[in-house]
């Protein structure tokens, strides 16, 4: 992965263990919000990521590129692929049971991804220090050990739930998402 210093964990950043109250290994991770473009089931043109955590600390997911996801004819749009990486990385950091948002997302596009391809995504944490979490993901074509098509590195910033109350609609999240403390 080609990455900038902004997404490289500094010395002293720690990779957390699975949270004791997090999902057990093998748990399917449902959608956090039905209208989410990444994982929502009520978003017709969304990515409909299907995710599982194999170990309570990382995420594996599948995303099948559809007609609605094209950039050039019958090939996935780069922004859509970045959205898939953002989503799977977001799912992985929320395993640590604190709300984070994307601060920076860097993407390497390695292979074109045709419509109809199922991308096998994997995301993991390289370290957390203070409010900053350093994460990484890859997307492989056709199988978990298929050729790498996309790689991403990200900096996520921890926020309080007040972030969503101030800037968005906390009640819409809170009604669907029971795992988080909703008081800012
Ligand atoms: C509910 C469950 C749902 C569960 C959801 C599961 C899946 C969701 C997946 C999708 C995730 C998204 O797309 S989230 C949506 C896209 N992202 C956003 O909308 C975020 C918009 N940006 C912001 O709101 C803000 O900029 C923040 C919160 C990121 C940071 O603002 P702040 O809180 O005031 O903090 P600030 O002091 O600026 O920054 C804190 C530290 O981080 C550093 N920092 C901040 N931003 C950056 C940056 N872009 N690049 C480098 N470094 C940065 C600062 O230098 C500082 O370092 P130092 O001085 O401490 O060293």
From TrEMBL:
Q: Known InterPro entries for this protein?
A: HotDog_dom_sf, THEM4/THEM5_acyl-CoA_thioest, Thioestr_dom
Cite the Thioesterase domain residue spans from the record: 76-140
- One Pfam family assigned to this protein is 4HBT
Record GO terms (molecular function) = hydrolase activity
How would you describe this protein's topology in the membrane?
Peripheral membrane protein
Which catalytic reaction applies to this protein?
(9Z)-octadecenoyl-CoA + H2O = (9Z)-octadecenoate + CoA + H(+); decanoyl-CoA + H2O = decanoate + CoA + H(+); dodecanoyl-CoA + H2O = dodecanoate + CoA + H(+); tetradecanoyl-CoA + H2O = tetradecanoate + CoA + H(+)
The UniProt similarity line reads: Belongs to the THEM4/THEM5 thioesterase family.
User: What is the recorded name of this protein?
Assistant: Acyl-coenzyme A thioesterase THEM4
